[in-house]
Amino acid sequence: MSWTVTGVVALAEKQPAQLVDVIIPDPGPHDVIVDIEACGVCHTDLAYRDGGINDEFPFLLGHEAAGRVAVVGDSVTHVEVGDFVVLNWRAVCGQCRACRKGVAQYCFATHNASKAMTLADGTELSPALGIGAFIERTIVHEGQCTKVSPEAPAEVAGLLGCGVMAGLGAALNTGAVQRGESVAVIGLGGVGSAAIAGAVLAGASTVIGLDIVEEKLQAAKDLGATHTINTAGLSRDEIVEKVQELTGGFGADVVIDAVGIPQTYETAFYARDLAGRVVLVGVPRPDARLTLPLLDVFGRGGALKSSWYGDCLPERDFPYLTDLYLQGRLPLGRFVTGTTDLAGVEQALNSLHEGHVLRTVVKNGVREEQGASA
Q: Which UniProt keywords apply (predicted)?
């Protein structure tokens, strides 16, 4: 059988996303139908809508989600009907060269559903990051479902599906922040703020948040940043000097670039201590170009790393981080700055341009008082 449900679809580049009927097919042997309870509004969805990812329109938007397993394929063993799950876009295959080398966080052949969702006229949809979760229910591969404690609210747990995990993992996994180290995070949106929380969780003694928006700097302090720097109007060298002043004159052990433009990367490169680590977690535009003196790359040593999905392993990281939240040790709830319903997704996407929210979360079946403008 199949199901007709309502979902948010980008039909054409830079056109408003629309609420339309979507056909969910009967699951294949390893597919799972998930009733979506909550899904975060991420910059990646905005990039899909505006053609910044690829041109495989129409896109079913949404990917940062949690919900309940409703139907399972005949060969599914990983989850059962009724399980509370966070969806992930790195369902490791176990067979590719990365998995065989023991670095499954870089899996090059992650699983997706075997059948496509379609519009009512039969047009196949491209689900955002292989998920597509601005919808009442979606179809994914069983490996894309990670069971977590059902005690966690869906609007909080779902954030681990993308942006918050990317930031936490940039600090905990890619940056490998150690107790007593110093960390600077450039860009304090949802990902950068999560990197602040990750650095605090790792035991960094100095945690510096950098942004041009005062309310984001205050939010970073609320998450545990020991210092903040408003970089508005400052040159690269001035920013570097301020970071050095806060780190004994040396620069930070780890600098995380959560913006992903050449200017912020260069700042991160020079704001670190000798032999320090730079972590790029902000996604660059395809046309971005970086120029650095090769002698500086050699002479400063250390490591220049890119963080893909926070280098996470969903089956390891999602349950662990959810438990830390339930224990009061990880303030995931602070990232939810507003809620809306499916009809409010387009407004929530546009609000991302304003840069004043960490996450608006879409909750199915409930329109909260804050609405999409929160």
A: Metal-binding, NAD, Oxidoreductase, Zinc
DSSP 99-166: HHTT-GGG-SS----SS--EETTSPBPEEGGGT--SBSEEEEEGGGEEE--TTS-HHHHGGGGTHHHH
Rounded to a whole number, what is the distance in angstroms from the first to the last CA of the chain?
A: 39
Tell me the C-alpha distance between 57 and 293, whole Å. Answer: 40
Tokens in use for 297?
Answer: 């790359």
Task: Show Cβ contacts of residue 272 under 8 Å, excluding neighbours closer than 6 positions.
Answer: 184, 251, 252, 253, 254, 255, 278, 300, 302
- CA dihedral (85, 90, 93, 94) positive or negative: negative
| Residues in the chain where the model's pLDDT stays below 70 | 365-374
- Cα–Cα distance between 27 and 181 in angstroms, integer? 48
Using CA atoms, how far residue 333 sits from 19, 92, 182, 330, 360, in Å, is: 28, 28, 25, 9, 12
Say which CATH architecture domain 3-161+331-363 belongs to. Alpha-Beta Complex (3.90)
The structural domains of the chain, with segments of one domain joined by +, span: 3-161+331-363, 167-307
Q: Are residues 132 and 7 in contact, defined by beta-carbon separation less than 8 angstroms?
A: yes
Enumerate residues 6+ apart whose C-beta is below 8 A from 316. Answer: none
Write the pLDDT tens digit of every residue in 117-176. 999 999 999 999 999 999 999 999 999 999 999 999 999 999 999 999 999 999 999 999
